[in-house]
């Protein structure tokens, strides 16, 4: 591959956001160099590539860095046309972006907060997350995946729910995803986990548990100081 | 115009998010029907068009509703190719989306919170907003508008800062945008306000002031109850 077209990914093994990008790259069959980052001791490559947010994932394509998992996936899809991830139709595309925004704001961010809270405050976030799942359950009516018959953009956005959510629930002592309450989401999760691309693609659960426990402890300690 | 291609916009006169869409429509020269919504008594058209968020703006094109100001602008730009708003180059496009996300999360949302707070809590948000302005000031180096020589996507995202921010500052009793501290942003604001498209396009300040005062009072009262 020409140096100027090389694809690199700055990531961290535990990150569900980096996982999204790896999934998109695998789906597209794009060759890339994966560069693990130590977020406790940030490399000059990371600081230089993402000076504002200083976080992963960052995709570097032909020397140019792009931050944010969903923006990276949009970019990959606009450069590599095979195996499209987003719908081609502008209306369907807009709706996919709108749902992605909903998932991030009303579910992903809510669970991120719940991980760092306890008691009544956590319970409030859990209820809000369940409201979002209820709406997503409705959206799956008559569909195997969020995009239809095959895995697409929203399935990638939601991918962390099939694996990381369980880890977070265990660590933080709550349950939002009760398979009996959300039978369509349960079926979606099963179909997703059966995809050959997904099998064996998650980081080891035994390592994630202590990692997210530590994040929770730090979050609780920092909240207590306020 | 054929019925199925008609463009309608559900809006509210005071909303800076609706303003963004009106600006994009004006820039494109798109004819549309504007339908003012009473958000204290939501119409069935709004509830049907945006069942999840139940808020404005909603664009309806050929009967199909699209929510969220920035998603609407992306959509308009992909359907009406004249007077492009986003850069055509995929990398520049990704970076525009990344900056928009930065502005929304690190400035727009922060000011929204500051409007509803007072004392130390407000001061914390104000400092965070100033950090974001400092970064945006750097991004304007050598440029008239965020996109370069002409108004584009990020200028529309930032448009509320040229008018609504002053109203919010007055109502909530803080100042984040000191023109001496941010000379490039000051110059950008002046250039923006001089555009023929912008002149006379804002809602009356005398009506916005009591409106945002009321929002602040409600926000403070609801925080006090918690």
From TrEMBL, chains A, B:
Any one GO cellular component localisation term in the record: cytoplasm
Record keywords, A-Z: Transferase
Gene Ontology molecular function, alphabetical: glutathione transferase activity
Gene3D superfamilies: 1.20.1050.10, Glutaredoxin (3.40.30.10)
Domain named GST C-terminal: residues: 89-212
GO annotation, biological process: glutathione metabolic process
Domain GST N-terminal stretches: 5-84
EC annotation from Swiss-Prot or TrEMBL: 2.5.1.18
Superkingdom of origin organism: Eukaryota
InterPro entries (alphabetical): Glutathione-S-Trfase_C-like, Glutathione-S-Trfase_C_sf, Glutathione_S-Trfase, Glutathione_S-Trfase_N, GST_C, GST_C_Tau, Omega/Tau-like, Thioredoxin-like_sf
Catalytic activity: RX + glutathione = an S-substituted glutathione + a halide anion + H(+)
PANTHER family given in the database record: GLUTATHIONE S-TRANSFERASE U8, GLUTATHIONE S-TRANSFERASE, GST, SUPERFAMILY, GST DOMAIN CONTAINING
Family: Belongs to the GST superfamily. Tau family.
Protein name per UniProt: glutathione transferase
Organism the protein comes from: Nyssa sinensis
Higher taxonomy: Eukaryota, Viridiplantae, Streptophyta, Embryophyta, Tracheophyta
């Amino acid at each position: 591959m020409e140096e100027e077209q090389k694809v690199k990914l700055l990531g961290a093994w535990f990150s569900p956001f980096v996982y999204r990008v790896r999934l998109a790259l695998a789906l597209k069959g794009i060759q890339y160099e994966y560069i693990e980052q130590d977020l406790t001791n940030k490399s000059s490559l990371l600081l230089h590539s993402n000076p504002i947010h200083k976080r992963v994932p960052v995709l570097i394509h032909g020397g140019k860095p792009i931050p944010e998992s969903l923006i990276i996936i949009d970019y990959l899809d606009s450069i590599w046309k095979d195996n499209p991830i987003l719908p081609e139709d502008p209306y369907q595309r807009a709706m996919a972006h709108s749902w992605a925004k909903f998932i991030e704001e009303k579910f992903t961010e809510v669970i991120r907060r719940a991980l760092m809270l306890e008691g009544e405050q956590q319970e409030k976030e859990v209820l809000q997350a369940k409201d979002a799942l209820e709406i997503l359950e409705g959206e799956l009516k008559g569909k195997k995946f969020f995009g239809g018959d095959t895995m697409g953009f929203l399935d990638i956005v939601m991918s962390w729910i099939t694996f990381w959510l369980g880890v977070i629930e265990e660590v933080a002592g709550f349950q939002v995803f009760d398979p009996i309450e959300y039978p369509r989401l349960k079926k979606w999760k099963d179909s997703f986990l059966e995809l050959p691309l997904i099998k064996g693609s998650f980081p080891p659960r035994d390592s994630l548990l202590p990692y997210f426990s530590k994040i929770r402890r730090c979050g609780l300690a920092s909240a207590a100081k306020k």
